[in-house]
Write a structure and sequence with these properties.
heterodimer; A: about 260 residues; alpha/beta; 10 strands; B: about 500 residues; alpha+beta; 5-stranded mixed beta sheet; 4-stranded antiparallel beta sheet; 16 helices; 14 strands; about 15% strand; globular
Chain lengths: ~260, ~500
């Protein structure tokens, strides 16, 4: 017993101050939101980024600046590395989520932050938000970093957010993976088992667009093919900070703009 | 009788596809059986197609000689099952039957392992996942418990069928395939811009393990080696991956026996270790860290120093958190003697990794088939012989300590020079290679071959979980069903690595 108390004192209180205090410091090599610097690409139009992108996340827009779909992006930075004009740059911005699929597309005129607030969630789930996680294919990394939010360092239960064991106890689903054909039925049944009103959050490139497995015949190119999605959280996998920020903005626990948001 | 001898190679040695020997059935069978009886492991058994038809190919690793042997045999629509003589082959044969409709006749339990919609278009079987025969027990008060694919926790999907009498499990059958997303099929014809991402996401928590195995496969085929500094950085990342996952599992094991202090501390410490990986490459799982030819990130002295400093703190925190658990009698009472795996069974079914070492079996690619920097900087193998949940937990802890020491050594004496070879020569035509690596779960085996144009004609991946899932089913026999979470976590296997 004494050893337990001693360890407790040594290990200290380690829950992050975020969102009231500063966000934890990320590695200087962290790849956050991609930025498109206007006008740099136009002269060249070399299309190297299009060729190297593993998921076809980049298109050349009408004004010949690239458009990057964060819902497909694996954040591998290859486009940034091959771009001769420096038109694409990955920023340390970790706030990536959006309520609609279109808002995940980043172009030269992109707003700073896409809205993520959900009226139902903000009204009903602001102080108690229970999610059933469904892993529908994928590699397990998104699940691992979703689990991290339950550790004392992140402690999402501070906000009443919790992963629950049964869909019948849940307010919504948090889906990871591209939805394999083999998980399609299980996902449909789990969705049906959640009482209305319910919300769906798609986490990671796979769940948004199929990610690295897009267009494989064994999967469905993401959760939207099966259920309506209310929040998209890009990344491969999303950093826990990206996910926590997304959940808090979704249920209106932090404002949609400003430094603390 | 014609003189036949298998091809002997080192870990990561490439050879001309034409040199892969073709045996008659009797020689194939006897070579396989004799080597397995004398201590070899079946690292891979698969079918690949050449113009003359399907070829059953066996890859055996011979720890005593640090060599790998390869040999093959032509098969038609069916062949006599090897499982009866070599239980290690049972899962491989089920995979072959499912994928290629080549039937191992006499296989004791032939059914799909992934419920794939098969490769060959002419042989597509409409099979619904989980709809199959399960081992079934009848009798008064006998009951069946079915769990999954969607589980209570935040974990991957899989289906478990328990045959119980009262609280006691008589048999557990594990049915997987829910994560099947067609990776091997997608890689064939590559490498493409997606291939490295497929490798990194074979099993997301083994990004470095599988990523390095893939890089070595490509490097071996192209006849190059990553520069020493790159090998060191990869090894540091591989050991960080091992530490993070082992610490996470130790915490989860503590949670499964209701010992919350260690659960909470280890959950946080695991994150601290992942952040060290992010310090090297920006991603907590090591995405983008290993690429064919080396690593695209260098470690400047300041960065290495920062990692060392943080690792020292992690070491202190982890020692306290984990030893608190192992020093608590009530924790030990829940782990000792639970989920015991008979050593003979472990050998028969070909367990690998932590699960095998916890049965006192020597089985560590880093020591037996050393590759890259492990050839020069040895890392001691950690075993324990009590074969139970405690052993599987304790081996993890022993390995964490060794890995920390290894990283300290590496980072303090990084070689000078480049970290990547550019440009990389193209893949040569008609060659094959076998690359073994020790992921944190155990032996990772990649076997690849190229066609006349230098593209992958096939790419076979064996995650350690492929060998070990059946081991989990075995240890549940005679256990209380309530001990399943503990036993499951003590193996800590990958669903996606198995399902591919």
């Amino acid at each position: 017993m004494l050893e337990v108390l001693k360890a407790r004192i040594h290990q200290k209180y380690r829950t992050i101050a975020y969102p009231d205090g500063p966000a934890p410091e990320l590695s200087d090599r962290f790849a956050g939101k991609p930025l498109v610097r206007p006008g740099l690409c136009g002269r060249l139009q070399c299309a190297r980024c299009l060729e190297i992108c593993p998921t076809g996340a980049i298109e050349l827009g009408t004004d010949s600046d690239p458009l990057i779909d964060m819902g497909k992006c694996l954040f591998c930075r290859k486009c940034e590395q091959v771009c001769p004009s420096g038109a694409i740059q990955f920023s340390p911005e970790y706030r990536l989520c959006a309520a609609t699929r279109d808002e995940l597309i980043v172009g030269p005129d992109s707003k700073d932050l896409s809205p993520a607030f959900n009226a139902t969630a903000g009204r009903l789930f602001k102080r108690s938000f229970k999610l059933r996680q469904v892993c529908a294919g994928g590699c397990g990394a998104c699940e691992a970093d979703a689990n991290v939010l339950g550790t004392p360092a992140w402690d999402m239960e501070r906000f009443g957010i919790q992963f629950v064991a049964s869909p019948r106890h849940a307010d919504g689903l948090l889906i990871t993976g591209p939805v394999t054909e083999n998980m399609r039925l299980a996902l449909e049944k789990t969705y049906e088992a959640v009482p209305a009103p319910k919300v769906v959050i798609a986490v990671g490139a796979c769940a948004i667009s199929g990610g690295a497995y897009a267009d494989h015949p064994q999967q469905c190119n993401g959760a939207s093919a099966i259920v309506p999605v209310d929040l998209f959280v890009p990344g491969c996998p999303p950093h826990p900070l990206t996910l926590l920020n997304a959940l808090l903005r979704f249920i209106c626990r932090i404002p949609e703009s400003g430094n603390s948001g | 009788m014609a003189q036949v001898s298998p091809l002997f190679i080192y870990n990561g040695e490439s050879f001309e596809t034409a040199n892969c020997p073709v045996f008659g059935w009797d020689d194939f069978h006897s070579t396989l059986v004799q080597n397995l009886y004398s201590g070899a492991r079946l690292s891979a058994l698969f079918v690949r197609h050449d113009p003359e038809g399907p070829r059953l190919t066996a890859v055996l690793s011979l720890p005593e000689h640090s060599r790998i042997i390869v040999f093959s045999c032509r098969v038609g629509d069916a062949y006599p099952s090897l499982t009866l003589d070599c239980p290690q082959a049972h899962w491989f044969e089920r995979e072959i039957a499912e994928k290629w409709s080549i039937i191992p006749e006499g296989h004791p339990w032939l059914k799909p392992i992934r419920f794939e919609r098969t490769y060959s278009a002419q042989k597509i079987r409409a099979c619904e996942i989980g709809v199959t025969d399960f081992f079934h027990m009848v009798g008064e008060e006998v009951h069946e418990v079915a769990v999954g694919p969607v589980h209570a926790g935040v974990i991957e999907p899989g289906h478990f069928r328990f045959q119980c009498h009262g609280e006691t499990v008589y048999h557990l059958e594990i049915s997987l395939g829910y994560q099947h997303r067609g990776i091997e099929q997608a890689i064939a014809g590559g490498p493409s811009s997606r291939t490295i991402h497929h490798m990194e996401t074979l099993s997301g928590d083994s990004t470095i393990g599988h990523g390095t195995a893939y890089c070595r496969t490509v490097e071996s085929l192209s006849g190059i080696q990553a520069p020493p500094r790159a090998q060191e950085i990869r090894a540091v990342a591989a050991e960080l991956e091992r530490i993070a996952n082992h610490i996470g599992d130790l915490g989860a094991l503590a949670g499964d026996v209701g010992f919350l202090p260690t659960l909470n501390y280890c959950g946080r410490i695991r994150g601290d270790v992942l952040n060290l990986t992010a310090e090297i490459c920006g991603n907590r799982f090591g995405r983008g860290l290993a690429v064919p030819g080396g690593v695209p990130f260098d470690l400047d002295p300041g960065r290495a120093e920062n990692i060392l400093k943080r690792l020292a703190r992690i070491q202190k925190d982890a020692e306290e958190a984990v030893e608190l658990m192992f020093g608590t009698p009530s924790v030990l009472a829940r782990m000792e003697g639970v989920g015991t795996m008979p050593v003979e069974t472990a050998r028969d079914i070909g367990l690998v990794g932590v699960a095998a070492r916890a049965c006192g079996i020597s089985c560590d690619v880093r020591c037996e088939f050393p590759y890259e920097i492990y050839r020069f900087n040895l890392i001691p193998e950690c075993t324990w012989s009590s074969c139970d949940c405690f052993a599987r937990a304790y081996v993890r802890w022993l390995e964490v300590k060794q890995s920390i020491v290894f990283i300290f050594d590496q980072l303090r004496s990084l070689s000078q020079g480049p970290v990547i070879i550019e440009p990389r020569p193209p893949l040569p035509p008609e060659r094959m290679t076998i690359s073994l690596a020790e992921g944190w779960r155990g032996e990772i085996c990649h076997v690849a071959g190229t066609d006349a144009q230098g593209r992958f004609s096939f790419y076979k991946i064996i995650d350690p979980s492929f060998h070990n899932w059946f081991g989990l089913a075995c240890v549940l026999r005679g256990q209380q069903i309530s001990d399943f979470p503990l036993c499951n976590k003590s193996f800590s296997l990958s669903y996606c690595g198995h399902d591919l």
